[in-house]
Design goal:
The complex is a heterodimer of chains A (208) and B (198). Chain A has 208 residues and is of the alpha+beta class. Chain A has three helices and 14 strands. With 198 residues, chain B is mostly helical. Chain B has two domains: 73 residues, no CATH class; 112 residues, Up-down Bundle (Growth Hormone, Chain: A). The N and C termini of chain B lie far apart (94 Å). The chains are: A alpha+beta (208), B mainly alpha (198). The interface between A and B is large, with 62 and 63 residues.
């Protein structure tokens, strides 16, 4: 009986596992910029109450929110619109009023498994750093194709043995994110270029 | 007679009425066995669940478990969210930047570093500069029954060959949908046409 039960459990778990994977797959495959609706409780000082209360509220929201980063939503790049401003609630003892504000904004959130393009900012023997918007991505030398060698000098770079492909500062590379670390205020990513159709797109050395 | 199950006394009591004995023994054995088997099963379920949870944690975006818990929570928030291509973001941000420029002399002072970096990034990597072309690409891609994120990856990376497109977005092939190579090729051709004539 226990055996039967066991296989039943196994079956169910397998089933839910496949469900989970399909969900993760859709969540992980590249999305970068989103247009998303967020909500925030704004506290407003009583001196701002008047005809232009709404404008004051919106400009304070922009100042508070734009440019911040949260683990949940990523970087808030820009507020594009206000959906609605709820009823204010006077705080006990202070006179401040809290308004629930729903706003639309553009957020920037890297996901694991995503393929994107980035600009190389620094090259050293451990690998190189690239930047995609506000996000820093590190590509370790283990994740650079084996035929690319590190060349030191005043312009450190990774070059193939025949010299046809070169990664240096300001190169544009296409890479795949394989890991992210999300802090309260920053997002770091680990990337790879060791895969099909990844690597240098344009090389500043050849054009200049 | 010394039954291991520890119901020695009870069995002794029943011993006199022999015909009763077998019945009680079966009863006590069952009493013992059921929770035992149950606990075994539960333990197995628990360990499997834990393994599964760990697996799904690893699969999802961030590295730490707390973050991932948050991730699971945001699931539907992001499902409702609209995914944007780099060129669309570039149109939005430039519009906003112009607005700021009208309001004050030095807009670069007003905007955050994140805004500035994002604007530089999308300007550098957007394939379509013209807002009309951007709209056309969005229309074209949405006529192909692609998911939002597939649409955006294709629009961002503009793959040139079918193999490249499949390597960038494996799901257009693997989900068993009607995207054969010819359909993908046609899509890529249309995209490069828009690029050519913008």
């Amino acid at each position: 009986m226990s055996l039967l039960y066991d296989s039943f459990v196994l079956l169910r778990i397998n089933h839910s596992l496949s469900l989970d994977l399909s969900f993760c797959g859709s969540g992980n495959l590249g999305k970068m910029f989103f247009h998303i609706v967020l909500e925030r409780n704004m506290q407003l000082h009583p001196r701002h109450f008047g005809r232009d209360l709404r404008e004051k509220l919106v400009s304070k929201l922009m100042k508070d929110v734009e440019g911040t980063c949260s683990g949940r939503h990523g970087f808030v790049v820009a507020i594009t619109g206000i959906e609605n401003v709820g009823k204010g609630l006077i705080r006990d003892g202070t006179g401040f009023v809290t308004f629930p504000v729903k706003y639309q904004c553009v957020v920037f959130r890297p996901f694991k498994g995503e393929i994107l393009e980035a600009v190389v900012t620094m090259v050293n023997k451990m690998g190189f750093f690239a930047e995609a918007g506000p996000v820093q991505i590190f590509v370790s030398n283990h994740l650079i194709p084996d035929d690319m060698e590190f060349q030191s000098g005043d312009m450190p770079n990774y070059t193939t043995s025949d010299g046809s492909v070169k990664i240096q500062k300001d190169s544009e590379v296409r890479l795949k994110i394989i890991g992210t670390r999300v802090d309260a205020t920053e997002i770091f990513c680990i990337g790879t270029i060791k895969d099909d159709f990844l690597g240098v797109i344009s090389d500043p050395g050849t054009t200049s | 007679m010394q039954n291991k199950s520890g119901h020695f006394d009870a069995i002794l009591l029943c011993f006199r009425c022999r015909h009763f004995y077998n019945l009680t023994r079966v009863f006590f054995l069952a009493c013992d066995a059921v929770p035992f088997v149950l606990s075994l099963c539960l333990r197995k379920i628990y360990s499997r669940l834990r393994a599964r949870l760990k697996l799904s944690f690893n699969m999802s975006a961030a590295g730490e478990e707390e973050e991932n818990a948050a991730d699971l929570k945001i699931g539907d928030e992001f499902l409702k969210a609209k995914c944007l291509m780099n060129c669309e973001v570039s149109v939005i941000l430039e519009h906003k930047y112009e607005q700021l420029q009208q309001m004050s002399e030095d807009p670069m002072n007003q905007v955050s570093q994140v805004f500035e970096k994002s604007l530089q990034y999308v300007k550098r990597f957007s394939r379509y500069k013209n807002p009309d072309a951007v709209r056309q690409v969005r229309e074209l891609l949405s006529s192909y029954q692609l998911a939002e994120f597939e649409l955006c990856v294709l629009g961002n990376l503009c793959p040139e060959t079918v193999e490249e497109a499949i390597a960038m977005v494996p799901s257009i092939k693997s989900r068993g949908r009607v995207h054969d190579d010819e359909a993908i090729e046609k899509l890529l051709n249309d995209m490069s046409l828009i690029k050519k004539f913008e």
